[in-house]
Amino acid sequence: MRRTIPLTIAFVLALAAPSGAQEPRIAAGVSAAGVDLSGLTLAEATGRLHTLEGPALGRPLSAHVAGRKFAVVPARLKLVFDGAKTARRAYNAGIAPHAGPVDVPLHITYDKRRVARYARGVASTVARAPRDATVRIALRHITRVPSSDGRALNAKALAAAVGKVLSDPRRQRVLHPPLRVLKPKVTTAGVARAYGTVITIDRGAFTLRLFKRLRHAKTYHVAVGQPAYPTPTGRFSITSKAVNPTWTAPDQPWAGAYRNEAVAGGSAENPLKARWMGIANGVGIHGTGIPESIGTAASHGCIRMTVPDVIDLYPRVPVGTPVLIGG
After folding, report:
1. What is the pLDDT of residue 79?
2. CB 286 within 8 A of CB 276
3. Per-residue model confidence as pLDDT tens digits over 234-266
4. Could you give the CA distance from residue 5 to residue 77 in angstroms, rounded to a whole number?
5. Per the confidence metrics, is the pTM higher than 0.90?
6. pLDDT per residue as tens digits for the range 297-312
7. Please, is 44 exposed, middle or buried when counting C-beta atoms within 10 Å of its C-beta (0-12, 13-18, 19+)?
8. Please, which residues bridge with residue 187 across strands?
């Protein structure tokens, strides 16, 4: 069984007045947290406050937020109600200059650190970080993972609200602290703009797929690298573009007589026909003068396209376009 911690009430009786002396009484029209203390002695007022306010102050309070209830017993927050000091506060208010009825607050103390700890616990439990939208790029399709809002609760504001409830039994014991919405940095719509163009190259199927705003736009047939000179796999991007590019032959035996030579763009001897879209380490997408090689592993690592296809693709692909190569 759960152990209940009793509410601490500081109950202090006024000392008996000397024989023949009249006990001081609280002025008419003076109350404490709504309890009328008019005409009562300090001892009588203390007793009345203890009877009427003590049980109310000991009732649990709770914060209802995000579909959950977080209850706490005031005794766990070390609440102490001093009826005698409250009565004295009412008496002093009655003898001070005033106009009309006077209502004084109860003399309440509580452990502010415990209240702050309770509020932080509520805030951390309901907190949720926003989630940015992301994409998962596969060779045949792109999956969009939508964004979601986060939420946060102001623990300091909740602690202040709890303090007000503890200090006044007339206040509603159920709190509904507001949640602040946290927006993601990348929204679902924003990720489509961020990935406006994507290229995937499936080496095994000899296909290049073009995606626009995460939707498949067009498929092209290509040639890829020979087993001895495979097209690299992984995630890359388009790093450069050129129309009728110059071919600088690599220092490789397969380059033959062109080894370490530069062949002008548009030359019949230049294997890079019409357009060039560089990827990495000398590998890129280009047109070919050997259209019959399309659909085979025939290149020295590059991705070959027919001249009409590479001319069609070229304006659709900006520098920086993500490129996924696999298969």
Report:
1. 97
2. yes
3. 999 999 999 999 988 788 888 777 787 888 888
4. 10
5. no
6. 999 999 999 999 999 9
7. middle
8. none
Residues marked active site are found at 286, 302
Q: What is the mean pLDDT of the chain?
A: 92
Q: Report residue 194's pLDDT band, with 50, 70 and 90 as the boundaries.
A: confident
List, in order, residues 6 or more apart from 121 with CB less than 8 Å away.
70
Residue 85 is which amino acid? K
The answer to whether residues 234 and 250 touch, using CB atoms and an 8 Å cutoff, is no
> Computed over its alpha carbons, how large is the radius of gyration of the chain?
40
What's the confidence (pLDDT) of residue 21? Answer: 61
pLDDT at residue 182, as a whole number: 98
Strand partners, 211: 198, 216
By the 8 A CB rule, do 237 and 306 touch?
A: no
The two beta strands, 35-36 and 30-32, are antiparallel
Using DSSP bridges, classify how beta strands 35-36 and 61-65 pair: parallel, antiparallel or unpaired. unpaired
Over residues 48-62, mean pLDDT: 95
Q: Specify whether the CB–CB gap between 199 and 208 falls below 8 A.
A: yes
Contacts of 185 by beta carbon, 8 Å cutoff, 6+ apart: 130, 132
Q: Show the tokens assigned to 230.
A: 């495979």
Strand pairing category for 150-153 and 174-175? unpaired
Both tokens assigned to 30: 């003076």
Which residue type occupies 126?
A: V
Dist CA 22 CA 160 (whole Å): 42
Nearest to 37 by CA among 90, 107, 99: 90
Q: Are 271 and 199 in contact (CB under 8 A)?
A: no
d(CA 205, CA 294): 11
3-state secondary structure of 45: helix
Distance (Å, rounded) from C-alpha 84 to C-alpha 45? 8
* DSSP string computed for 250-289: -SSGGGGGGTT-EE-TT-TT-SSEEEEEEEETTEEEEE-S
